[in-house]
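Sample pair:
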Amino acid sequence: MGYKGDRVRFNVGGTKFETTATTLASAGPDSFFGPLLDGNWNLRPFSDEEIFVDRNPACFSIFLDLLRTGELYIPKKVPEDLLYREALFYGLLDHVRAAKWGRFDGRTMMRLTSTVKSRGLEQGTMVRASDDGGFCVAHGSVVHVYDWMLREHPSIDLNHQKVNDIGWADPKSVVVTAPKGMGLFDSSTGELKHQFTVDSQGYHVKGFNAGPLCFGSDQKIFSTCRLRDDENGIGVWDGETGKQVDFWHESDEPLGRAHRLQWLDQGSCLLAAIHARSNRNPYRHFPYNLCMLDTRDKKVAWSWLGSPDLTSRERVWDAVAMEDKSLIAVTDEYYEGLGFLDLRFPRSVRWGPRRSTGVNMTSEGCHPKVEYYQGQLLLSTDDYISVFQGADFIPKLRLQHGDGAFICDFSVGGDRIFTLHHRENRLDVWEAPRPAIL
């Protein structure tokens, strides 16, 4: 018999192993080991003295240790690509990924672990991280997609349409917006799964300029839309079916010109950030920089206008809401530092200590960007990322490659920070250190 009580024997590539049903149960029912166990996680009877598996024994040993202890130790002699391939066979990729991640913490020095050189013909314009540590990066009309193992998948080509925004609906799906619409693509194959359409005020829109997007609860996808005759608004689609479920129409320009959207779960609201000055008409000022849209009654709950003066510190460039702190963190176009607005009753910005960078990033096509991730604020300025923590948001960590290449975009996912550098057309991958193996 291949089992005795709770124990089971394996012969993997000629190497013998013995383990227990309890250890195998931690792999989960969808793993290679799931069929060996019954509904009560007990071993099923089988006649062979041992289970033969024609795979790599060194990797199997690593997986057994991972299932026993929850810790991942990879000997130097085992290539990680080989380990990932074997983990895929056994259905243990999620276990390997979870154990490999360190805890994202601004008090811990992160490491520059990888650099990805672009093969695109055009400069990279944006990068978006997935929740599991993969990423996608846009180069002109092409989106290059990488999984959490940093393996490149087939690219998404929009046929000469410039990419306006990209985002992960889930680890298997990427949404891309462009001047002639938007679609949802399979992240593994690059194939189009859904092409989104817009119906507004009783008529079907053949083409629309889709802009910044975000993802809400119940698999909802939001995107700004500029329609014909300067009609604008925000479209809402079901990510599962690709069908439009709502459209918030606005005859004036601001919503269609928003440069950032953010879904807020607690209030079922949408935060829209709009640059104070129109790109098409520099003498025209929009009525607000920030607005909060209540999705229940489709009304603006509040709006806030900073100064349209190009040299003013009140001219907000980027913003991110922190629901757990009832604050909005903002940054402007030219200064290093952060400002804060009350999320419920925005009045004036409370700026922290700041200094001029001394360099005009906009001449390089780069602007400061602020993100909020796992209770920490991150700000890109020039060629480095600052990580802020605590009630007073004190800078705790500075990430800098050292070659002076400006950061034109960055994104955070899993335990990684991805920084896209403009002139070098290079993407750096920063990772939290893995927990020590004792």
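Residues 120 and 373 are 29 Å apart (CA to CA).
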